[in-house]
Amino acid sequence: MSTATPEQIARRSGAGAPELMASILLGSRPKGVTVADRTVEGIRLRIYKPAESGTARPLIVYFHGGGFVYGDLRGGDWMCGTVAKGLDAIVVSVEYRLAPKHPFPAGVDDCFAMLIWAAHHARELGADADRLGVMGESAGGNLAAVAALMARDNGGPRIRHQALLYPATGAGETESRRANADAYILTAADMATFGELYGGDVDDWRVSPLKAESLAGLPATTVIVGGHDPLHDDGVNYADALREAGVGVQLIEYPAMPHGFLNFPRFARDADTAMTAVVNAQRSAFG
């Protein structure tokens, strides 16, 4: 990423991998889970639905990773499908606008708008708006955390659980960023480039949710982190800050894992275990 030219970035941004390659690298949704793509207010969504159960299900809104520059709906198929089947939930995946063509706050605005849309259309989707959660990984974890803050500050929709998977929270120069500056998947140079392309003031809580004036009143939270991830301490520090604000937090660490390990379920030995932990936490939060 850090050595890519602007032309290369523009060409790759929003470009999906060929299906065979994506299936090998990123996994596929489980059998029995159907998907439907639709466009709402110019934003593409992918809606995951498990086999019919005849009951109103939890509703999870998911935001993909990719440094706010890369990523698309296909990247979340395995995670979203696993949650849809394991939790018996409706999952709405959001393809928000990407930098550098659409810098901050475009992605934030898209994600919050689609969270509101999903909550308002829960019954149509076969879901229960009173059992609403958000989920995101990496940059998507940042957007999920920001969406939860916006929902709290704007009087809704009420979120019952947030699953933040190795999120970027604006923790600054941490020990994990120094120790893993040249780690697999994500490097310090990559993160610097992503930040430049995304834009926004790092002191703005919509860029750095860890810098919000208060984290009180946020939903029950599950944070997943990997030991070889520059963003390890971002997740840990956010979990600590939430706990200090009186929020129920479950922090789960996978010491052997790099950044993005849930995106590679065929290769990362802890991916299945971590997704099971997420589904169990969601089930506990929703009852």
TrEMBL record:
InterPro entries: AB_hydrolase_3, AB_hydrolase_fold, GDXG_lipolytic_enzyme. Gene3D superfamilies: alpha/beta hydrolase. GO terms for molecular function: hydrolase activity. Residues 60-262 form the Alpha/beta hydrolase fold-3 domain. Keywords: Hydrolase. This is Alpha/beta hydrolase. The lineage of its organism: Bacteria, Bacillati, Actinomycetota, Actinomycetes, Micrococcales.
